[in-house]
Amino acid sequence: MSGDADATPPSGASLAPLSEDERAELAALRARYPARHRLRSAVSAVLITLAALLAPLSAVAVWVADDMANTDRYVRTVEPLASQPDVQAAVTDRVTDEVMKRVDINAILSQVAPDKRAEVKAALGALNGPITSGIRDFVRQTVANFVASDAFRTLWVQLNRHAHAAFTGALTGNSNSAVKINGDTVTLDLAPVVAQVKQRLVDRGLTVASKIPEVHTDFTLVKSDDVKRVRTGFRALQLAGNWLPVITVVLAGAGVLLAARRRRALVTAALAVAAGVALLGIGLSIFRIFYLNQLPANTNERAAGAIYDQILHFLRGTVRTVIVLGVVVAIGAWLSGSGKWALRVRSVWESGITAVREAAGLRSTGSVGPWVHRHRHLLQWLVVLAAVVALLLWSYPTGLVIFWIALVTLVGLAIVQFLDDRQQGGGKTAAAP
Protein backbone atom coordinates (compact mmCIF):
# COMPACT_ATOMS: atom_id res chain seq x y z
CA MET A 1 0.00 0.00 0.00
CA SER A 2 1.25 3.48 -0.78
CA GLY A 3 0.10 6.97 -0.10
CA ASP A 4 -1.14 8.53 3.09
CA ALA A 5 -2.63 6.33 5.82
CA ASP A 6 -6.06 7.83 5.61
CA ALA A 7 -6.28 7.90 1.82
CA THR A 8 -9.47 6.59 0.20
CA PRO A 9 -9.32 2.78 0.16
CA PRO A 10 -9.72 0.81 -3.07
CA SER A 11 -13.20 -0.03 -4.33
CA GLY A 12 -14.77 -2.87 -2.42
CA ALA A 13 -12.41 -2.54 0.54
CA SER A 14 -13.65 -1.63 3.97
CA LEU A 15 -11.02 -0.23 6.30
CA ALA A 16 -11.81 1.28 9.67
CA PRO A 17 -10.38 4.76 10.28
CA LEU A 18 -7.26 4.96 12.41
CA SER A 19 -7.63 5.71 16.07
CA GLU A 20 -5.73 8.48 17.76
CA ASP A 21 -3.29 5.96 19.32
CA GLU A 22 -2.67 4.31 15.95
CA ARG A 23 -2.05 7.66 14.31
CA ALA A 24 0.43 8.58 17.05
CA GLU A 25 2.24 5.25 16.67
CA LEU A 26 2.41 5.66 12.89
CA ALA A 27 3.81 9.19 13.28
CA ALA A 28 6.43 7.88 15.71
CA LEU A 29 7.50 5.16 13.26
CA ARG A 30 7.76 7.70 10.44
CA ALA A 31 9.90 9.95 12.61
CA ARG A 32 12.12 7.09 13.79
CA TYR A 33 13.27 5.78 10.43
CA PRO A 34 14.55 9.08 8.99
CA ALA A 35 16.34 9.73 12.28
CA ARG A 36 17.97 6.31 12.12
CA HIS A 37 19.08 6.91 8.54
CA ARG A 38 20.50 10.29 9.51
CA LEU A 39 22.42 8.71 12.39
CA ARG A 40 23.83 5.98 10.14
CA SER A 41 24.81 8.53 7.52
CA ALA A 42 26.55 10.67 10.14
CA VAL A 43 28.49 7.70 11.55
CA SER A 44 29.35 6.64 7.99
CA ALA A 45 30.70 10.11 7.20
CA VAL A 46 32.81 10.12 10.37
CA LEU A 47 34.31 6.70 9.60
CA ILE A 48 35.13 7.61 6.01
CA THR A 49 36.69 10.88 7.19
CA LEU A 50 38.84 9.01 9.72
CA ALA A 51 39.96 6.62 6.99
CA ALA A 52 40.94 9.54 4.76
CA LEU A 53 42.90 11.12 7.62
CA LEU A 54 44.64 7.86 8.53
CA ALA A 55 45.53 7.01 4.92
CA PRO A 56 48.62 9.29 4.72
CA LEU A 57 49.78 8.13 8.16
CA SER A 58 49.32 4.53 7.03
CA ALA A 59 51.53 5.16 4.00
CA VAL A 60 54.24 6.64 6.22
CA ALA A 61 53.92 3.73 8.68
CA VAL A 62 54.36 1.19 5.89
CA TRP A 63 57.40 3.10 4.63
CA VAL A 64 58.97 3.14 8.09
CA ALA A 65 58.26 -0.53 8.80
CA ASP A 66 59.10 -1.96 5.38
CA ASP A 67 61.87 0.35 4.19
CA MET A 68 63.45 2.45 6.91
CA ALA A 69 63.37 -0.26 9.59
CA ASN A 70 64.34 -3.10 7.24
CA THR A 71 68.07 -3.13 6.56
CA ASP A 72 67.94 -5.19 3.36
CA ARG A 73 65.22 -3.06 1.75
CA TYR A 74 66.93 0.15 2.85
CA VAL A 75 70.21 -0.97 1.30
CA ARG A 76 68.43 -1.91 -1.93
CA THR A 77 66.83 1.53 -1.92
CA VAL A 78 70.06 3.51 -1.57
CA GLU A 79 72.28 1.19 -3.62
CA PRO A 80 71.55 3.01 -6.93
CA LEU A 81 72.96 6.22 -5.41
CA ALA A 82 76.47 4.79 -5.84
CA SER A 83 76.02 5.27 -9.60
CA GLN A 84 74.28 8.66 -9.35
CA PRO A 85 76.61 11.34 -10.90
CA ASP A 86 75.81 14.06 -8.33
CA VAL A 87 76.41 11.70 -5.42
CA GLN A 88 79.64 10.48 -6.99
CA ALA A 89 80.80 14.10 -7.39
CA ALA A 90 79.97 14.90 -3.75
CA VAL A 91 81.85 11.83 -2.47
CA THR A 92 84.80 12.65 -4.71
CA ASP A 93 85.05 16.20 -3.31
CA ARG A 94 84.77 15.01 0.29
CA VAL A 95 87.45 12.30 -0.01
CA THR A 96 89.76 14.55 -2.06
CA ASP A 97 89.64 17.22 0.65
CA GLU A 98 90.48 14.67 3.34
CA VAL A 99 93.44 13.29 1.38
CA MET A 100 94.80 16.71 0.45
CA LYS A 101 94.83 17.78 4.10
CA ARG A 102 97.54 15.18 4.61
CA VAL A 103 99.59 15.70 1.44
CA ASP A 104 102.02 18.63 1.19
CA ILE A 105 104.96 19.70 -0.97
CA ASN A 106 107.54 19.11 1.76
CA ALA A 107 106.52 15.47 1.96
CA ILE A 108 106.96 15.09 -1.78
CA LEU A 109 110.33 16.93 -1.71
CA SER A 110 111.53 14.53 0.95
CA GLN A 111 111.83 11.98 -1.82
CA VAL A 112 114.43 14.15 -3.57
CA ALA A 113 118.09 13.42 -2.88
CA PRO A 114 119.38 15.48 0.09
CA ASP A 115 122.11 17.21 -1.91
CA LYS A 116 119.52 18.39 -4.50
CA ARG A 117 116.71 19.36 -2.10
CA ALA A 118 117.73 23.02 -1.52
CA GLU A 119 118.27 23.56 -5.23
CA VAL A 120 114.85 22.09 -6.09
CA LYS A 121 113.13 24.25 -3.45
CA ALA A 122 114.74 27.38 -4.84
CA ALA A 123 113.79 26.42 -8.37
CA LEU A 124 110.18 25.81 -7.43
CA GLY A 125 109.69 29.18 -5.73
CA ALA A 126 106.26 30.55 -6.71
CA LEU A 127 105.40 27.28 -8.43
CA ASN A 128 104.41 25.78 -5.09
CA GLY A 129 100.76 26.77 -5.66
CA PRO A 130 100.50 25.33 -9.20
CA ILE A 131 102.23 22.13 -8.08
CA THR A 132 99.75 21.75 -5.22
CA SER A 133 96.90 22.33 -7.66
CA GLY A 134 98.34 19.71 -9.99
CA ILE A 135 98.64 17.19 -7.18
CA ARG A 136 95.06 17.94 -6.17
CA ASP A 137 93.88 17.29 -9.72
CA PHE A 138 95.84 14.04 -9.71
CA VAL A 139 94.29 12.98 -6.40
CA ARG A 140 90.81 14.01 -7.50
CA GLN A 141 91.08 12.01 -10.72
CA THR A 142 92.19 8.97 -8.75
CA VAL A 143 89.28 9.38 -6.35
CA ALA A 144 86.83 9.88 -9.22
CA ASN A 145 88.05 6.70 -10.92
CA PHE A 146 87.58 4.75 -7.69
CA VAL A 147 84.12 6.21 -7.07
CA ALA A 148 83.07 5.13 -10.56
CA SER A 149 84.29 1.56 -9.98
CA ASP A 150 82.48 -1.58 -8.85
CA ALA A 151 84.69 -1.62 -5.76
CA PHE A 152 83.13 1.65 -4.58
CA ARG A 153 79.61 0.33 -5.17
CA THR A 154 80.42 -2.66 -3.00
CA LEU A 155 81.88 -0.42 -0.32
CA TRP A 156 78.91 1.93 -0.60
CA VAL A 157 76.54 -0.94 0.19
CA GLN A 158 78.63 -1.92 3.23
CA LEU A 159 78.78 1.63 4.55
CA ASN A 160 75.07 2.18 4.13
CA ARG A 161 74.33 -1.11 5.84
CA HIS A 162 76.38 0.16 8.79
CA ALA A 163 74.72 3.57 8.57
CA HIS A 164 71.29 1.99 8.65
CA ALA A 165 72.28 -0.04 11.69
CA ALA A 166 73.38 3.18 13.38
CA PHE A 167 70.15 4.96 12.49
CA THR A 168 67.76 2.22 13.58
CA GLY A 169 69.93 1.39 16.58
CA ALA A 170 69.74 4.97 17.76
CA LEU A 171 65.99 5.16 17.22
CA THR A 172 65.11 1.79 18.73
CA GLY A 173 67.78 1.66 21.42
CA ASN A 174 69.61 -1.29 19.85
CA SER A 175 73.34 -0.59 19.45
CA ASN A 176 75.64 -2.06 16.81
CA SER A 177 79.40 -2.53 17.13
CA ALA A 178 79.93 -1.29 13.58
CA VAL A 179 78.94 2.26 14.54
CA LYS A 180 80.01 4.74 17.17
CA ILE A 181 77.90 6.87 19.48
CA ASN A 182 80.08 9.68 20.78
CA GLY A 183 78.41 11.87 23.36
CA ASP A 184 75.29 13.21 21.70
CA THR A 185 76.17 12.20 18.12
CA VAL A 186 75.83 8.99 16.12
CA THR A 187 78.68 8.83 13.58
CA LEU A 188 79.91 6.55 10.83
CA ASP A 189 83.62 6.07 10.15
CA LEU A 190 84.45 6.58 6.45
CA ALA A 191 88.06 5.39 6.85
CA PRO A 192 87.58 2.47 4.36
CA VAL A 193 86.99 4.88 1.46
CA VAL A 194 90.13 6.92 2.22
CA ALA A 195 92.17 3.72 2.62
CA GLN A 196 91.11 2.47 -0.82
CA VAL A 197 92.02 5.80 -2.42
CA LYS A 198 95.34 5.90 -0.57
CA GLN A 199 96.35 2.52 -2.02
CA ARG A 200 95.35 3.59 -5.53
CA LEU A 201 97.47 6.76 -5.25
CA VAL A 202 100.47 4.63 -4.30
CA ASP A 203 99.80 2.29 -7.22
CA ARG A 204 99.73 5.28 -9.58
CA GLY A 205 103.14 6.49 -8.45
CA LEU A 206 102.33 8.97 -5.67
CA THR A 207 104.33 6.94 -3.16
CA VAL A 208 104.17 9.75 -0.60
CA ALA A 209 100.53 8.75 -0.12
CA SER A 210 101.77 5.66 1.70
CA LYS A 211 102.81 7.96 4.55
CA ILE A 212 99.28 9.25 5.02
CA PRO A 213 98.17 7.98 8.43
CA GLU A 214 94.88 6.19 8.88
CA VAL A 215 92.19 8.79 8.33
CA HIS A 216 89.03 8.57 10.41
CA THR A 217 86.36 10.81 8.94
CA ASP A 218 83.28 10.90 11.13
CA PHE A 219 80.03 11.37 9.29
CA THR A 220 77.28 12.60 11.60
CA LEU A 221 74.01 10.73 11.19
CA VAL A 222 71.83 12.08 13.97
CA LYS A 223 72.07 13.96 17.27
CA SER A 224 71.01 12.07 20.36
CA ASP A 225 68.69 14.92 21.41
CA ASP A 226 66.87 14.50 18.10
CA VAL A 227 66.85 10.76 18.64
CA LYS A 228 65.07 11.18 21.96
CA ARG A 229 62.39 13.31 20.33
CA VAL A 230 61.67 11.00 17.40
CA ARG A 231 62.39 7.60 18.99
CA THR A 232 58.85 7.13 20.29
CA GLY A 233 57.25 8.15 17.01
CA PHE A 234 59.58 5.98 14.94
CA ARG A 235 58.95 2.93 17.10
CA ALA A 236 55.19 3.52 17.05
CA LEU A 237 55.14 3.81 13.26
CA GLN A 238 57.33 0.72 12.98
CA LEU A 239 54.87 -1.29 15.07
CA ALA A 240 51.85 0.22 13.30
CA GLY A 241 53.23 -0.43 9.82
CA ASN A 242 51.30 -3.68 9.39
CA TRP A 243 48.15 -2.75 11.29
CA LEU A 244 47.41 0.87 10.52
CA PRO A 245 46.60 0.22 6.82
CA VAL A 246 44.25 -2.60 7.89
CA ILE A 247 42.52 -0.30 10.37
CA THR A 248 42.16 2.34 7.66
CA VAL A 249 40.56 -0.13 5.25
CA VAL A 250 38.23 -1.46 7.98
CA LEU A 251 37.10 2.07 8.85
CA ALA A 252 36.43 2.88 5.20
CA GLY A 253 34.59 -0.42 4.70
CA ALA A 254 32.47 0.11 7.82
CA GLY A 255 31.62 3.61 6.63
CA VAL A 256 30.47 2.26 3.28
CA LEU A 257 28.37 -0.53 4.85
CA LEU A 258 26.65 1.89 7.24
CA ALA A 259 25.78 4.36 4.51
CA ALA A 260 22.23 4.51 3.19
CA ARG A 261 23.60 4.84 -0.36
CA ARG A 262 26.52 2.44 -0.30
CA ARG A 263 27.64 2.84 -3.89
CA ARG A 264 27.95 6.59 -3.52
CA ALA A 265 29.70 6.08 -0.17
CA LEU A 266 32.22 3.73 -1.81
CA VAL A 267 33.00 6.33 -4.47
CA THR A 268 33.39 8.98 -1.77
CA ALA A 269 35.60 6.80 0.42
CA ALA A 270 37.88 5.80 -2.44
CA LEU A 271 38.33 9.38 -3.61
CA ALA A 272 38.75 10.68 -0.04
CA VAL A 273 41.53 8.18 0.70
CA ALA A 274 43.20 8.99 -2.62
CA ALA A 275 42.96 12.72 -1.88
CA GLY A 276 44.44 12.27 1.61
CA VAL A 277 47.42 10.38 0.26
CA ALA A 278 47.80 12.89 -2.58
CA LEU A 279 48.18 15.63 0.04
CA LEU A 280 51.02 13.58 1.55
CA GLY A 281 52.73 13.48 -1.85
CA ILE A 282 52.38 17.25 -2.20
CA GLY A 283 53.75 17.70 1.31
CA LEU A 284 56.82 15.59 0.49
CA SER A 285 57.56 17.80 -2.52
CA ILE A 286 57.15 20.99 -0.48
CA PHE A 287 59.31 19.65 2.34
CA ARG A 288 62.02 18.79 -0.21
CA ILE A 289 62.34 22.48 -1.08
CA PHE A 290 62.46 23.43 2.60
CA TYR A 291 65.01 20.68 3.33
CA LEU A 292 67.38 21.76 0.54
CA ASN A 293 67.11 25.43 1.53
CA GLN A 294 68.21 24.59 5.08
CA LEU A 295 71.42 22.81 4.01
CA PRO A 296 74.80 24.40 4.83
CA ALA A 297 76.29 26.59 2.12
CA ASN A 298 79.08 24.13 1.25
CA THR A 299 76.70 21.19 0.75
CA ASN A 300 76.25 19.69 -2.71
CA GLU A 301 72.58 20.52 -3.13
CA ARG A 302 72.07 18.31 -6.18
CA ALA A 303 73.54 15.32 -4.38
CA ALA A 304 71.42 16.03 -1.30
CA GLY A 305 68.32 16.21 -3.49
CA ALA A 306 69.19 12.91 -5.16
CA ILE A 307 69.61 11.23 -1.76
CA TYR A 308 66.32 12.69 -0.52
CA ASP A 309 64.47 11.45 -3.60
CA GLN A 310 65.99 7.99 -3.42
CA ILE A 311 65.29 7.46 0.28
CA LEU A 312 61.66 8.52 -0.26
CA HIS A 313 61.36 6.46 -3.44
CA PHE A 314 59.32 3.70 -1.75
CA LEU A 315 57.04 6.18 0.05
CA ARG A 316 56.34 8.13 -3.12
CA GLY A 317 55.64 4.86 -4.91
CA THR A 318 53.12 4.01 -2.19
CA VAL A 319 51.47 7.41 -2.66
CA ARG A 320 51.09 6.82 -6.40
CA THR A 321 49.78 3.30 -5.80
CA VAL A 322 47.05 4.39 -3.37
CA ILE A 323 45.98 7.24 -5.63
CA VAL A 324 45.64 4.95 -8.65
CA LEU A 325 43.83 2.31 -6.59
CA GLY A 326 41.42 4.88 -5.17
CA VAL A 327 40.61 6.27 -8.61
CA VAL A 328 40.13 2.77 -10.09
CA VAL A 329 37.79 1.72 -7.27
CA ALA A 330 35.82 4.98 -7.53
CA ILE A 331 35.41 4.62 -11.30
CA GLY A 332 34.40 0.98 -10.97
CA ALA A 333 31.79 1.76 -8.31
CA TRP A 334 30.44 4.68 -10.30
CA LEU A 335 30.15 2.69 -13.53
CA SER A 336 28.22 -0.08 -11.78
CA GLY A 337 25.57 2.40 -10.63
CA SER A 338 22.31 3.52 -12.19
CA GLY A 339 23.29 7.09 -12.97
CA LYS A 340 22.58 8.56 -16.39
CA TRP A 341 26.20 8.77 -17.47
CA ALA A 342 27.09 5.40 -15.98
CA LEU A 343 24.26 3.83 -17.99
CA ARG A 344 25.48 5.57 -21.13
CA VAL A 345 29.03 4.30 -20.63
CA ARG A 346 27.79 0.75 -20.08
CA SER A 347 25.58 1.05 -23.14
CA VAL A 348 28.59 2.05 -25.23
CA TRP A 349 30.54 -0.85 -23.70
CA GLU A 350 27.82 -3.38 -24.59
CA SER A 351 27.36 -1.89 -28.06
CA GLY A 352 31.06 -2.16 -28.71
CA ILE A 353 31.20 -5.83 -27.72
CA THR A 354 28.09 -6.53 -29.81
CA ALA A 355 29.76 -4.83 -32.78
CA VAL A 356 32.82 -7.03 -32.33
CA ARG A 357 30.65 -10.17 -32.33
CA GLU A 358 28.85 -9.01 -35.46
CA ALA A 359 32.13 -8.17 -37.18
CA ALA A 360 33.38 -11.67 -36.33
CA GLY A 361 30.16 -13.16 -37.71
CA LEU A 362 29.45 -14.81 -34.38
CA ARG A 363 25.71 -15.10 -33.85
CA SER A 364 25.97 -17.64 -31.06
CA THR A 365 28.61 -19.16 -28.82
CA GLY A 366 26.78 -22.49 -28.72
CA SER A 367 25.95 -24.12 -25.43
CA VAL A 368 28.44 -21.83 -23.69
CA GLY A 369 26.38 -18.70 -24.34
CA PRO A 370 23.23 -19.62 -22.40
CA TRP A 371 25.33 -21.02 -19.54
CA VAL A 372 27.34 -17.79 -19.32
CA HIS A 373 24.13 -15.78 -19.38
CA ARG A 374 22.66 -17.76 -16.50
CA HIS A 375 25.82 -17.39 -14.39
CA ARG A 376 26.94 -13.98 -15.63
CA HIS A 377 26.74 -12.31 -12.20
CA LEU A 378 28.83 -15.04 -10.58
CA LEU A 379 31.40 -14.88 -13.40
CA GLN A 380 31.64 -11.11 -13.16
CA TRP A 381 32.23 -11.24 -9.43
CA LEU A 382 34.81 -14.01 -9.87
CA VAL A 383 36.75 -11.76 -12.25
CA VAL A 384 36.64 -8.92 -9.73
CA LEU A 385 37.60 -11.29 -6.88
CA ALA A 386 40.58 -12.55 -8.89
CA ALA A 387 41.75 -8.95 -9.32
CA VAL A 388 41.44 -8.31 -5.57
CA VAL A 389 43.36 -11.51 -4.73
CA ALA A 390 46.12 -10.61 -7.23
CA LEU A 391 46.41 -7.18 -5.62
CA LEU A 392 46.56 -8.62 -2.10
CA LEU A 393 49.16 -11.24 -3.01
CA TRP A 394 51.43 -8.75 -4.80
CA SER A 395 54.22 -7.92 -2.35
CA TYR A 396 54.75 -4.28 -3.26
CA PRO A 397 52.26 -3.25 -5.96
CA THR A 398 52.94 -0.04 -7.82
CA GLY A 399 50.57 2.27 -9.63
CA LEU A 400 51.55 0.59 -12.90
CA VAL A 401 50.78 -2.84 -11.44
CA ILE A 402 47.30 -1.66 -10.39
CA PHE A 403 46.74 -0.22 -13.85
CA TRP A 404 47.54 -3.56 -15.48
CA ILE A 405 45.40 -5.47 -12.98
CA ALA A 406 42.50 -3.13 -13.76
CA LEU A 407 43.09 -3.56 -17.50
CA VAL A 408 43.15 -7.36 -17.22
CA THR A 409 39.95 -7.16 -15.15
CA LEU A 410 38.26 -5.18 -17.91
CA VAL A 411 39.38 -7.78 -20.44
CA GLY A 412 37.93 -10.53 -18.24
CA LEU A 413 34.59 -8.71 -17.95
CA ALA A 414 34.62 -8.12 -21.71
CA ILE A 415 35.12 -11.85 -22.33
CA VAL A 416 32.13 -12.65 -20.10
CA GLN A 417 30.07 -10.10 -22.00
CA PHE A 418 31.30 -11.44 -25.35
CA LEU A 419 30.33 -15.04 -24.51
CA ASP A 420 26.92 -14.06 -23.11
CA ASP A 421 24.19 -15.02 -25.62
CA ARG A 422 21.65 -12.56 -24.34
CA GLN A 423 19.08 -13.34 -27.00
CA GLN A 424 19.07 -17.01 -26.12
CA GLY A 425 19.20 -16.40 -22.36
CA GLY A 426 16.47 -13.77 -22.51
CA GLY A 427 16.61 -10.25 -21.23
CA LYS A 428 19.39 -7.76 -21.11
CA THR A 429 22.67 -8.36 -19.36
CA ALA A 430 22.74 -6.73 -15.97
CA ALA A 431 25.28 -4.18 -14.97
CA ALA A 432 28.73 -5.36 -14.06
CA PRO A 433 29.40 -5.55 -10.32
Automatic annotation (TrEMBL):
Q: Write out the transmembrane intervals.
A: 42-65, 243-260, 267-291, 311-336, 378-396, 402-419
UniProt keyword terms in alphabetical order? Membrane, Transmembrane, Transmembrane helix
Task: Look up the domain of life of the source.
Answer: Bacteria
Question: What is this protein identified as?
Answer: Integral membrane protein
In its UniProt entry, the species of origin is given as Actinacidiphila yanglinensis
